[in-house]
């Protein structure tokens, strides 16, 4: 199986499992009713970040093919653009609740997908590094 397909399958699994766990936790805590008071949804957040992380992964793989020495710069640029896009996505919902419900859920989803981006970049940067036994 191609490494590109593995990146996509892992992203899909990560998004699916984390979405299910996130939804179960909110339901068990009785906090899922807060979503009705906002224009945002947990599904919408996961879809946005899934698309953003997929775009970052594709750009990283293209950079790995074309400019393997500059992969870390491409990664930093992608993360900067993703952070700006994330702020633009959530800015209308900031300070909407007294208890920071939306902000905390946003941060959880942001960091889940940020960890995926970091792992994808790590795998691409270190793909050629082999341990030499003495």
Automatic annotation (TrEMBL):
Protein name: Uncharacterized protein
Superkingdom, natural source: Bacteria
Transmembrane segments: 44-63, 70-90, 102-125
Alphabetical UniProt keywords: Membrane, Transmembrane, Transmembrane helix
């Amino acid at each position: 199986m191609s490494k590109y397909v593995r990146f996509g399958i892992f992203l899909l699994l990560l998004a699916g499992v984390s979405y299910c766990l996130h939804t179960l936790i909110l339901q068990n805590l009785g906090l899922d009713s807060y979503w009705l008071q906002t224009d945002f949804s947990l599904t919408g957040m996961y879809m946005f970040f899934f698309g953003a992380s997929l775009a970052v992964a594709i750009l990283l793989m293209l950079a790995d093919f074309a400019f393997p020495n500059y992969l870390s710069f491409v990664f930093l640029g992608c993360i900067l653009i993703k952070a700006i896009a994330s702020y633009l996505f959530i800015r209308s919902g900031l300070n909407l609740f007294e208890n920071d419900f939306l902000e905390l859920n946003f941060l959880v989803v942001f960091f889940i997908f940020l960890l995926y981006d970091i792992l994808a970049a790590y795998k691409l940067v270190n793909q050629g590094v082999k341990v030499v036994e003495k």
